[in-house]
Amino acid sequence: MTANPILLQKKYARIIKQFSIKEKLSFDDALKFFYHSTMYRLMREGVSDLHCMSDEYLAEELILEYEQIIH
Question: Which residues contact 16 (CB under 8 A, 6 or more apart)?
C-alpha cells in the first residue's frame, strides 16, 4: 500500500520534529539524519506499511537507529 505523497511528507515532518526534540538536535541535523536513514528508505518504498505506524513509534525507531550509528 502506498501513502498519499502529501500526507507522507507531513508525517515525515512530524517524525523529524519529535526526533529532534527528543535527541536535542537542530531540526536541520535531524532532517539530514532522517533522509539518510533506513527508516526513510523503507517508508518511501512502502515496506510493511510503516507509514501506518504512529509518529511516536516511528520517532522512537529513528532514535534507535540514530543511537546505533553514534555509539
Answer: 27, 30, 31, 34
Contact assessment for residue 46 and residue 2, using Cβ atoms and an 8 Å cutoff: yes
pTM over 0.90: yes
How far, in Å, CA of 7 to CA of 28, rounded? 21
> What is the per-residue pLDDT for 69?
92
Residue 50 near residue 64 (C-beta atoms within 8 A): no
| Cell, residue 44 | 518511501
Q: What is the pLDDT of residues 1-38, one digit of tens each?
A: 577 889 999 999 999 999 999 999 999 999 999 999 99
Which letter, b or e, does each residue of 10-43 get, where b requires 16 or more Cβ atoms within 10 Å of its Cβ?
ebbeebbebbbeebebeeeebbebbeebebbeeb
